[in-house]
Amino acid sequence: MAVISRTFRSGNSDAVRLPKEISFGPGVEVEIERKGDVVTLTPKRPSVKEMLAKLDALPKPSSIGKRPPFIAPIRKGL
């Protein structure tokens, strides 16, 4: 979907208003990439380091269950 908007000055920076139809919502960090005349905005994805930090911050389980042993099926020809 293509929409039209205009750039404007915000302090010392150029800015553009994203219309509601294509907005990311408030407070979403975006990565901006420019290749020639094409400017691409994508939501910022967390790095592996950030994801691991979030996993470490999760509460630890009170106990750990034990799985039953895996028994592989017998297959002829392998």
UniProtKB/TrEMBL annotation:
Organism: Brevundimonas intermedia
Taxonomic superkingdom: Bacteria
SMART domains: SpoVT_AbrB (SM00966)
GO MF term set: DNA binding
Protein name: AbrB/MazE/SpoVT family DNA-binding domain-containing protein
Pfam families, A to Z: MazE_antitoxin
Keyword list, A-Z: DNA-binding
InterPro entries linked to this entry: SpoVT-AbrB_dom, SpoVT-AbrB_sf
SpoVT-AbrB domain mapped to chain residues: 8-49
